[in-house]
Design a protein that fits this description.
The protein is globular and about 40 Å long. The protein is built from 3 helices and 10 strands; from the N terminus they run H-H-H-E-E-E-E-E-E-E-E-E-E. The longest helix is centred in the first third of the chain and has 16 residues. A hairpin with a 2-residue loop joins strand 9 and strand 10. The chain has 2 domains: 34 residues; 136 residues, Lipocalin (Beta Barrel). The chain has 177 residues and is an alpha+beta fold.
Length: 177
């Protein structure tokens, strides 16, 4: 209760006429931090919904994107409802956009958006580190490249590394209507 009273006094102080410039600066800072330096997080948020598609080997696959945690994270659920469903959580970490992949290989690679992917419609997240990765030779995701084809079509290329060798699976998705 004491915390609420202190916060209430803070909010009243912020809403006085003399505090408007401070409040405006604070709001602008929060909006920029939330969207990332170039609005990339907002692009991830725009994927919200259900998607169907095919993998490289023509296997059918589903995915969903859901904005959560008061807009501070997006959960992608790849293969939802299957034995090997894998969530990836996209979120801001300071001024960088991160993707943490909870893999069926039972590790959790953290990947960071690269600043120059080569195309304005492409986002490339590269490996930073991982939890539950006993050795760099153990199988784990190293990269995900997201290509925004149009509002209803999306390509993801997931690169997996095991024992120093990489393989990439491509997923072509269409938004469900």
């Amino acid at each position: 209760m004491e915390m609420l009273q202190k916060n209430g006094r803070f909010m009243r102080a912020l809403t006085t006429a003399a505090s408007w410039p401070l409040l405006l600066a604070l709001c602008c800072t929060l909006l920029v931090a939330q969207a990332g330096p170039d609005g990339t997080f907002d692009r991830i948020k725009s994927l919200s919904g259900d998607w169907t598609g095919k993998m490289t080997d023509n296997m059918l696959v589903t995915s969903s994107f859901r904005v959560t945690a008061a807009g501070s994270a997006v959960i992608q659920m790849l293969g939802e409802g299957t034995e090997h469903e894998m969530p990836t959580i996209y979120h801001m970490d300071g001024d960088r956009l991160m993707a943490t992949h909870y893999c069926a290989a039972q590790n959790q690679p953290r990947m960071v958006l690269q600043s120059n992917p080569g195309s304005p419609n492409t986002m490339r997240f590269d490996f930073l580190d991982a939890t539950n990765l006993r050795s760099p030779n153990d199988g784990h995701m190293r990269r995900v490249v997201i290509t925004f084809i149009d509002r209803d079509h999306l390509r993801q290329e997931w690169t997996y590394r095991e024992k120093g060798k990489e393989s990439t699976d491509t997923f072509e998705f269409t938004r469900k209507r």
